[in-house]
Amino acid sequence: MAALRSYVNGDWHAPVEDGVPLHDAVTGEEVARISSAGVDMAAALAHGRERGGPALAELTFHQRAALLKSLASYLLEHREELYALSARTGATLGDSKFDVDGGIGVLFGYSSKGRREMPNDTVYVDGAVEPLGKGGTFLGQHVCTPLSGVAVQINAFNFPVWGPLEKFAPAFLAGVPSLIKPASQTAYLTHRLVELMIGSGLLPEGSLQLICGSVGDLFEHLTDQDLVSFTGSAATGQRLRAHPVVAANSVRFNVEADSLNCSILGPDAEPGSAEFDLFVKQLVTEMTVKAGQKCTAIRRALVPAGRMDDVVAAAKARLEKVVVGNPNSSGVRMGALASLEQREEVRRSLKALLEAGTLVHGDPDHVEVVDADAERGAFLSPMLVRCDDPDQPQPHEVEAFGPVSTLMPYENAAHAVDLARRGKGSLVGSVVTADPAFAREVVLGAASRHGRMLVLNSDNAKESTGHGSPLPALVHGGPGRAGGGEEMGGIRGVLHHMQRTAVQADPATLTAITGQWVTGSPRNITDVHPFRKHLEDLRVGDTVVAGPRRVTLEDVEHFAEFTGDTFYAHTDEEAASANPFFDGRVAHGYLVVSFAAGLFVDPDPGPVLANYGLENLRFLTPTYPGDEITVTMTAKRITPRVGAEHGEVRWDVDVTNQDGDSVAKYDVLTLVAKRPDTQE
């Protein structure tokens, strides 16, 4: 059987030795061999830094996002092939979709985030401008730029597609090349995934590499610009994080480790209620999806003390319907574990758990399987442990990484919180309840030990993605035992791959560096109204100044009658004068904004297609009848849309009175057409 090849230095590398055999989790047959012997780890990292990084740096966030979308679409066309190979890892079709479709979904998710929440530029501006002096000539701004190293991604065996893609997507969007190292047991599936990704021809050279086998001396060559994202056991994560090179170079190291996640049934959920059924269904699902080999699976199920018998009976009834066997066979709901070694590890952990409880369903030494050999394949039955004394340490310390969960009772909300926290750091916890007060007490009490908390009830059940489903927009990670790291989380995951730098400068220089107009920078007032310019012809700083317009008492009264806004400050002179903020009747703030629009708008058809938003509106100084207002509108940020016939322009609007005082400030968002000859 041929050994899996690594993809390094722009080419596929065959190992210089036969390698270790990898086996089909269902049949025991050899699938492939694996070894990284002969791979020059230093050269692979150098290739990523010298080829991949610069190639990505030439692309804007929007261009990278577009490539992620194209890559996701390409992989969708090949997912049936990935499903078929996934079955050899012991995964059912449902398991495979969770892994494959979930991973592709992360690519789509980050593509959308990049296009909607990041600029069409190579620098990300983080937060607002900070004034550092009274005169406005000295400002501060945080900017984020990609690290100039490689994102080394070490993945676990349980998600050979989702695992690499959920790390690759934010790194790629940030502009940092990836080096993927899959876990050996299921590396043949990740290998095929990377073959497809490279074969798509979409990715810049050096932006993606693959190491099949051990990391060898890879860590010896890490620099301060590289970063490591690790998924796996807490013990291995701790060992790698303590590597002397990692410590000496302050290498960013993110760990997402297995954890003792819990699910808590609320005291309001009586047998027969929707929440009771949801709790039991979710418990069984988390025990059997991927044969319980999920870092987010429910390991501890906490129920009100008086409901233990009810939950045991309901869970057993569901578990008895679970058919174990060949994932390709009809009716099979749970496949095999990833390997025979993994099965033995689960059995050892279960033995420790049974020191504190009793097995109420399943048999670690016997399982009926469909269309398979129970001994040659890594099969186990789903096993439910009952522990009536939740103060026993084993359920809070021992994790059986397979189809195993432990039921424990709690007395009240405070007790449930205490038990949840005994996991010493979890990726996820869930609370199944229709009682908002109970949910609040448990969530806020347990949040410091959890990376994610799900509140599940009949109101959200149809849309809920479930306890064990990390989502691209939310952080995936947890404190303590769970590794102390965070992955994904939308743009947070992108920024993890970037350096945040505080830039101090004058307004004009800050505008030049960030590509965004800053108050105090020069304005460009031309004879051509900015609304007459196509997107390519606009420049940051292009400005229109319009006015003045006198605001009359008749205007205020008409606006009040026309809109129905008869608030006393606009209609009652005596009451308005008694208000400590006013010296009499004042114009409506929205009247001021409306008049400002009438001043700056160019009425004829042109490149401006639509006004689609107004943000950051503040009314700073009252406008009184008789005041004259002038509006200054400046192009603040110009964002072309890749593949679209238009882009977005954000305008800074400052409305001032006859004394030069700002009465209103806000941003206007417009869609502006590209020139017909440049539309993509």
Automatic annotation (TrEMBL):
It comes from Saccharopolyspora oryzae. Belongs to the aldehyde dehydrogenase family. NCBIfam families: PaaN-DH, PRK11903.1. Gene3D superfamilies: Aldehyde Dehydrogenase, Chain A, domain 1, Aldehyde Dehydrogenase, Chain A, domain 2, Hotdog Thioesterase. Keywords: Oxidoreductase. Residues 543-650 form the MaoC-like domain. Pfam families: Aldedh (PF00171), MaoC_dehydratas (PF01575). This is Phenylacetic acid degradation bifunctional protein PaaZ. InterPro entries: Ald_DH/histidinol_DH, Ald_DH_C, Ald_DH_N, Aldehyde_DH_dom, HotDog_dom_sf, MaoC-like_dom, PaaN-DH. Residues 477-489 have a biased composition (Gly residues). It comes from the Bacteria. Transmembrane segments: none annotated. Residues 20-443 form the Aldehyde dehydrogenase domain. Residues 461-489 are annotated as: Disordered.
